[in-house]
Amino acid sequence: MEKIQHSNIRVNGINMHVAQISNSGPPILFLHGFPELWYTWRHQMLHLSAAGYRTIAPDLRGYGGTDAPTSAAEYTVFHIVGDLVCLLDALGLDQVFLVAHDWGASIAWNFCLLRPDRIKALVNMSVVFSPRNPVRKPIESMRKMFGNDYYICRFQPPGEAEEEFARVDTTLVIKKFLTSRNPGLLCVPKEVGFGGNPNAKITLPSWLSEEDIDYFANTFKRTGFTGGLNYYRAMDLNWELTAAWTGEQIKVPVKFMVGDLDLTYNTPGVKDYIHKGGFKKHVPFLQELVIMEGVAHFINQEKPQEVSEHIHDFIKKF
């Protein structure tokens, strides 16, 4: 870990914390999800830098050492992709390989829609590309399909989820998220709350250490969760702002990876979309599809060696 260098770079009107291992080789930009940080990519950064690549992992807007505007209106895909384009400019990079997971994956799809000229190839994990529904906003669709207790619907009211998280220790919140292996719909009734039982005892899997948990937990204790939750709260606004891209395809080479126990893979309709031609229709340059057996949502941490090798096997073709 001592190989990883940290800096703060001014991008798009905010200060961004960036972790890097600076080699002269081809650059890879890693985008994390919720509730994560640059740290989620620690294994891949070390593996791929040893293979001769320059590895770059920022804390995205709202996370960790990067500035966190308070308004959800400042977390649109235009803001986030804008941050990343400015980061590439600041680093003097014309193109990068893009590797992303969870919310980072959603941002990566939009990055490829908005600025495909900056992406050499994409390795995306967990979250498939969802074409824009021209007639209904995403939160309305989720309420209709999954109910008001669906976690993304529950994340919408400002401050509500934060209050529930605050009822238990942040360390426990992080453990619950990272160790969850329930592939079913994540629905959280208000009477249960996102914190759940404050006295719960969670045994860490072999791929997560107490040191890892402490890094995430100590950071979120300092920053809170609002920055990350604002990505969910900007979903309907994104829908309005991206109307001009309705029907657009992803036009960069893509490898997609997901665990068969991932709640995203088991969301109703997603398996059929992936395996019956819908995904390929919207992502025509999808070259490789990997379904990892017995693996849950946090795939890049649960299977670090395998994921690193999958990334390398794909990007070394270009």
Can you characterise this structure?
The chain is of the alpha/beta class. The chain has one domain (5-315): Alpha/Beta hydrolase fold, catalytic domain (Rossmann fold). The chain has helices spanning 42-50, 77-90, 103-114, 138-146, 151-154, 160-166, 170-179, 210-223, 226-233, 235-241, 270-275, 278-282, 299-302, 304-315; strands spanning 5-11, 14-21, 27-31, 54-58, 96-101, 119-125, 254-259, 286-292. The chain has an eight-stranded mixed beta sheet with strand order 1-2-4-3-5-6-7-8, sandwiched between helices. Strand 1 and strand 2 (14-21) form a beta hairpin. Helix 1 crosses helix 14 (304-315). It is globular, with a radius of gyration of 18 Å. The relative contact order is 0.16.
CATH topology grouping: Rossmann fold
Count of separate structural domains: 1
Number of strands: 8
> Radius of gyration, Cα only, in angstroms?
18 Å
Oligomer: single chain
Mean pLDDT across every amino acid position: 97
C-alpha termini separation: 28 Å
Helix content: 25-40%
Order of helices and strands: EEEHEHEHEHHHHHHHEHHEHH
CATH superfamily: Alpha/Beta hydrolase fold, catalytic domain
Continuous helix count: 14
> Unreliable segments (pLDDT under 50, ≥5 consecutive)?
none
Q: From the coordinates shown, what is the CATH architecture? A: 3-Layer(aba) Sandwich
Strand order of the largest sheet: 1-2-4-3-5-6-7-8
Q: What global shape is seen?
A: globular
Strand content: 15-25%
CATH class: Alpha Beta
Largest sheet: 8 strands, mixed
Helix/sheet category: alpha/beta
